[in-house]
Design goal:
Number of helices: 7
Radius of gyration: 22 Å
Order of helices and strands: EEHHHHHHH
Strand order of the largest sheet: 1-2
Largest sheet: 2 strands, antiparallel
Structural class: mainly alpha
Shape: globular
Low-confidence stretches: none
Helix content: 55-70%
Distance between the termini: 55 Å
Oligomer: single chain
């Protein structure tokens, strides 16, 4: 049986459900590994003031670090207090993506964020939400963002087209960046692990030489953990910037 490095991204139906003809709402491995971060998030932040400590323990320190980091990011990118109402969403998005990315690094799990269907679903939903917020606040003035102020009217058709394409490209780049980074990292680690396993199984000097790529693999594992957190942060940061554009009509 042939094996492909892309087999790790294959979506498998665990429970097949077709309630209305061709409508498929089956439970897949991707579904399971998107619900696990949700459960973890509800468990981590199911706290109240009675559970806090004046001198925080390790658990409270991690929660406070995530809270203060995202809070500072939102305040910096959505100024004048306008970002307060978006903070719960941005924090939830960051934690959700971070745990999906990290869980995907565990052997025999599934990296849901390695699939464009998941990342594009998130990015397009965010794009639609930002557009609704902008329309509800500015109405038809929302379209003024496609014409830079002070630009000559003769160049209006060209500038509007460029700005429109740039605007539409936002959800594409947002989803593509996350999926591409997670997929590339998993493929690199899988290829290197297969190479190391073959060297160690060969025995003799070849097996001894395999200790060097094994050390590299351990380093890449730590690096991938950092990438998982950074990509979750970048996705949340760009979402915050897009929300700011919708609130202040940049």
């Amino acid at each position: 049986m042939s094996y492909s490095f892309f087999d790790q991204f294959e979506i498998t139906r665990l429970i097949t459900i077709h309630p209305f003809g061709n409508l498929d709402v089956s439970v897949t491995n991707s579904t399971i590994f998107m619900f696990i971060p949700l459960i973890i998030f509800l468990f981590l932040f199911n706290t109240n003031h009675k559970n806090g400590h004046i001198i925080p323990n390790r658990y409270q320190s991690i929660i406070e670090l995530a809270y203060t980091t995202i809070d500072a990011m939102v305040k910096e990118n959505i100024p004048h207090g306008a970002g307060a109402r978006f903070f719960p969403f941005i924090l939830s998005l960051f934690i959700f993506l971070a745990f999906m990315n990290l869980i995907g690094l565990i052997p025999y799990t599934f990296a849901a964020t390695g699939h464009g269907a998941v990342t594009f679903g998130l990015s397009i939903s965010i794009f639609i939400g930002c557009s609704i917020i902008a329309f509800s606040k500015f109405g038809l003035d929302y379209f003024s963002m496609f014409m830079p102020p002070g630009a000559p009217m003769g160049m209006a058709p060209f500038l509007v087209l460029v700005e429109f394409i740039s605007h539409i490209a936002k959800p594409v780049s947002l989803g593509l960046r996350l999926a591409a980074n997670i997929t590339a990292g998993h493929l690199l680690f899988t290829i290197l692990s297969t190479f190391i396993w073959q060297m160690l199984g060969a025995g003799g000097i070849i097996a001894l030489a395999g200790l060097f790529p094994l050390a590299i693999a351990c380093f890449i594992s730590v690096l991938e953990m950092g990438v998982a957190l950074i990509q979750a942060y970048v996705f949340s940061l760009l979402t915050t910037i897009y929300l700011n554009d919708s609130v202040h009509l940049h």
